[in-house]
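Thread amino acids onto this structure.
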């Protein structure tokens, strides 16, 4: 239907209704006046009190899977209280120097904010990237080495020699003594872990989980093929050896800790895994009596 026709019909209908209403009002019989009904006064209503909902209880902390027993000194020599986390570097330096020797500490460890570095690195090893600037150990000197073949670029087996001094140092550490020191200083590690963004979580559980993940690192028997990521731009990369990735998508998708072990070479990987298993036994069997 056209709009003009609709409008005309609406006007006619309105006129007809108005005329009918006028005719009915003029000719209807008069009715007696109607008295308005008596209305009882309205009593004020007191609003019912609104119940205030009870606040939700705080979330319960995650259950502890691997509790660590805080090591106490003998009664004849009462333990000194632990320093604040931000002031613990001297304590760590003295304890590690006594345990590992001054030369080893200066050569392999970065003691600046050591506890926080350890906690952050442990957490990052299970993720995609572990930034070297946060490591509690000194990065391995030398350049990542590859070998070019007709069918591509491969990890140079001689590359593992760069890691030999560190692996020798790590595997010579007394796991029992290190775990005892870790247990004695555990409150500092726990505080650093909560500050990292894990309130209510237990650092030793995270440490054991990361060790288990490292122990699952594959041990390839064939040379590992690599690929060089391309960088777009007018300025060439001054350190292309930092851009190598594993050609195998399965290896490249693995967490940072496993890829570090793979780059160290199969023999070094096996030696470090053996030390990790030994350390794990100590930090898991130290259970609280509570």
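Threaded sequence (290 positions):
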């Amino acid at each position: 239907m056209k709009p003009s026709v609709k409008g005309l019909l609406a006007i006619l209908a309105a006129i007809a209704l108005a005329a009918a209403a006028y005719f009915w009002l003029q000719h209807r019989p008069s009715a007696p006046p109607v008295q308005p009904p008596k209305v009882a006064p309205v009593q004020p209503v007191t609003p019912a009190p609104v119940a205030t909902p009870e606040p939700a209880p705080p979330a319960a902390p995650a259950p502890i899977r691997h509790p660590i027993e805080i090591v106490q000194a003998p009664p004849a020599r009462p333990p000194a209280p632990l320093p604040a986390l931000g002031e613990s570097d001297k304590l760590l330096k003295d304890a590690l120097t006594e345990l590992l020797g001054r030369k080893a500490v200066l050569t392999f460890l970065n003691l600046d904010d050591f506890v926080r570095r350890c906690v952050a690195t442990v957490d990052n090893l299970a993720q995609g990237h572990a930034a070297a600037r946060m490591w509690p150990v000194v990065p391995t000197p030398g350049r990542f080495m590859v070998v070019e073949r007709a069918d591509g670029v491969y990890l140079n087996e001689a590359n593992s020699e760069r890691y030999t001094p560190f692996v020798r140092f790590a595997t010579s550490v007394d796991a029992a003594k290190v775990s005892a020191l870790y247990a004695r200083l555990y409150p500092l590690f726990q505080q650093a872990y909560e500050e990292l963004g894990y309130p209510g979580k237990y650092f030793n559980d995270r440490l054991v989980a990361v060790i288990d993940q490292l122990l699952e690192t594959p041990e390839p028997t064939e040379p590992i093929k690599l690929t060089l990521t391309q960088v777009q731009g007018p300025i060439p990369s001054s350190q292309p050896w930092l851009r190598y990735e594993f050609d195998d998508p399965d290896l490249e998708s693995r967490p940072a800790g496993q890829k570090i072990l793979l780059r160290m070479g199969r023999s070094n990987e096996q030696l470090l895994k053996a030390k990790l298993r030994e350390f794990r036994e100590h930090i898991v069997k130290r259970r609280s009596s509570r």
